[in-house]
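User: Sequence in, structure out. Go.
Assistant: Echoing your sequence, followed by the structure tokens.
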Amino acid sequence: TGSGKTGAFALPILDHLLRKPSPGLRLLVLVPTRELASQVEQTFRDVGRFTSFKVATVIGGVGYDQQRRAVSEGAEIMVATPGRLLDHLENRAFRLTTVDHLVMDEADRMLDMGFLPDIRAILHYVPKERQTLLFSATLVPDVERVAAFTLKDPVRVEVARPATLAEGISQVLYPVVQEQKIDLLLTLLKNTEMRSVLAFTRTKDRADRLAASLDKAGYRVEVLHSNRTQRERTDAMENFREGKSQILVATDIAARGIDVKGISHVINFDVPQHPEDYVHRVGRTARAYGVGDAITLMDPVEQVHVTDIERFTGLTFPR
């Protein structure tokens, strides 16, 4: 996490498109969430600023017409979530016959979210002769299976083992009963300089309740989960990114790929049930080899999940 995966495919593909120009849609990037789609789109706009390339974003929660128009007006690059893209393809809104690069980003997360049937269907719409790149923070067996039917004679590049955490993250664990988690968090916020905090909860309902408690205590707080409208999700991310809010409370939808500079603290208000999710959550701080703090609040019933995380990462967290 935070090592520059998006740049690793955006820069060389743009270089290739410049060297071998041809009309039509040339690159399709599949991502699991709308937030990641917006971020990848922005990366392409940033690194391709001095080129004429147009980028179309195809995601749920916004109108179909403007997405169709972006493609018909000559976009060479498309960033899409699988569900909405398949809707367009089945309605014959546009074709992918000129695509010569396919990128599947955060492949493990797409599988977690149940997108495998959609991905299989989308593959029927892209040419068999293409370059395919698959990016995944963890190469679990399910991802290996997807690689087997989407990639042809692939080269495997492993930057670090999946459980590796950025060296700049300081991690600590507070054993605390469930009923006292909010009081402890408020005490930590009061007594520690926390410039920018990302707090994770297990459920959407708990995210809303935690955000309400923090708001009542006088903190500038936003909340991010899948029940929020696209407008609310975009506003929450922008306010947090620009420093207008100090705390973003989120479910694991935000744990993958979200790159906000300067997050000083990640708080696991609930211990994640999967060790991989811990790695993704705390990887939101110490981006690009910076430093940051990860604090986990552990109710006794969550000890089993902490044990799994410590085994997975090879670390023992100070209590």
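User: And one key feature?
Assistant: The CA atoms of residues 121 and 238 lie 33 Å apart.
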